[in-house]
Each structure stands twice: as structure tokens, then as C-alpha cells.
Amino acid sequence: MYKILPYLYLGTANAVYEQDLLAKHKITDILNCVSDEVDNAFPDDYTYHNYEFKDTHQCYILDKMDEIFDIVNSVKDAGNKNIVIHCIDGKAVSPSIIIAYMLLSASKKNQFLPAKKAINYVKSKNISINPNDNFLIQISKLEKKLFGETSLGNIGGGNKKKKNNNNNRRR
Fold it and tell me: Which of 15, 77, 88, 152 has the smallest count of CB within 10 Å of its CB?
């Protein structure tokens, strides 16, 4: 389990079955990105938020990001809670969700956070993340929607970096 932000952890399916580890990190909420594959081990002890994302090129995560943002922020705002976001191996789905959360969080504070910087930050906490091209394209689209440009270059053949000429990028 990797601490990404003071209240936000990245985990694996194995990690959320280790109650001692969850207690050590004061986890109160578990966002299970793969609830169709990984059971909620301790439903009486933790608040679970279940999603059925797949590490495929057809899975669309952005439709649920506003809802997930609200869940993570409610944990953050409580001040005495922590949340772990997990998928099977903690390499693709859950890091992509965390990176999208970070972009949304920056945007709502009128701050600019390049996706590339967010990805590198998460990698610095867990070097083995590997979002598939589909998730990277979605992150790039989210970045462009929020900030008017993408820092990820040409992913999947269609997302060239383009500066916004209207100078409405938030910093």
C-alpha cells in the first residue's frame, strides 16, 4: 500500500485483505475498482465504495470521476479518515483513478496540474504503475478539458499537445 496524499492510498487486492495493514494506515474507506473480481473482505469494519472497472481498452473511467471525487473529498474533509483506492495489482485502474482525481482536485482549486506531473508524482510513490493507453488517453482528455492543453503528447495517435490560445489555463 502506497501513501499518495495525506488521506489517499493506492493499494492492491492483496493489501485490502490485510486488516493489520489497513489499521496501520488508519484506513476507514475502501474504493474497490474491481468489485466484480475482488470481494469486500471486512464489510462491517470499513466503508466500501464499489466499482466494476476493467483494465481494458473499452473501459471508460471518466463517467464516474465526479462521484469518485466527491467520495475521496468527503474522506479528506472528515480530517480523521483515510481511503485506499485499489484494483487487482495497483498498476493500471486505481492509479488512473488517482491521477484523474488529482487533476480534478487541482482544477477545483483553480490550480494547474499537468497530467505528466501527476503521473510522475504517483510513480515516485509506486514505481510500477502502468496505465494502459486507453486510461492515458482519458487522462489526457480530462487534462485538456480542465486546463486547455495536454502534457502527455501523442497517445494513441490523436492527442497532440496544443497550447490554448485563449490564455484561460489556470495556474
Answer: 77
